[in-house]
# Entry
Amino acid sequence: MGALEAALAPILDRRTGQDHPPLFWRHHGQLASRAGVERTVRECMDNFALAGVDPAGKVILDAGCGFGISCVLLALMGAREVHGIDVVESKVETFRRIASRLPHLTSLYPKLADVRETGYDPARFDLVLSNEAISHYHEIESFIEEAWRILKPGGMLFISDGNNGANSGAVRDTQEIWTRFENGPAGPIPKTGHIVEIPYREQRIRAARAASPDLSGDEVDTLAANTYGFVAAEVEEAALAYRRTGVLPASRFAPGVPPRSPASGQYIERLIYPGVLARQLRAAGFTARVYAYLGGAGGNPFLRAANKLVLSLSPLTWPIGRALKAVARKPEVHGLRA
# Structure
């Protein structure tokens, strides 16, 4: 605990951390308190206990590492190498700055890369982690296949996410996030911690207008409405194609379809259905179990006891937990598909 607090001190100092983006502070500002550090460490230890893995001496990939704070913790826990990848360049650059301020942690390796095509050699890792990241991936099955490829025989894929599609409360809150990020208004979304800066539809309007400034306001609005889920370059291509042909795309906002960021191509959030995830993992060759997660990282003994029961009764308890966790192991025999 003390080692993490000491490592985080220069990172979370507002004077030395002035170059961190605002999103960093929204995600990790709580680590400036002992309670925040204890919660983070407790959840990490709980995850490894559930997976039955000791990170010490392991070569680990954090797929969707964000600003790299989890990677710092893994390095402090004795991991031999901790590679963190993300598709958002500003997050990777922040991770690099953080790593440079911790020269005694020589096992940190930030990298700008897509979880679908990591660029690593086959059988490179003992453990691949996806912590609050899989709900942002564009193609989950491609990520699972890539995890299989880069894991050693006997290696572990561990997934943790707070968007359990079997839980009605998670579904309700996630759908509200979708609507706000797509249509606005800008500003904070109560209870979720999200802040809408520029709604996705407005971003697509700007992309269409930049590509085809001669289009009318109504035409640009219609293009934006019909390019739901498009990234900015695809919106620009659609605008140019519309000028040539008069034909509009037919991708519109609809219930149950999560929006993608026009800037990064990531989903702001997507619902992860535990039964579907279990089937995807097993289809790729993993032996896998998906658990409902109730909570308990805050240390409440009653909640921790209840969570232990909920974990043990999964999948019967899938609808109870707001979150889920998946433990998937690659068979020891290299190349064996279950």
Strands lie at 59-63, 81-86, 108-112, 125-131, 151-161, 187-188, 195-196, 287-293, 323-329. The chain has twelve helices and nine strands. The chain has two domains: 2-165+272-329, 168-245.
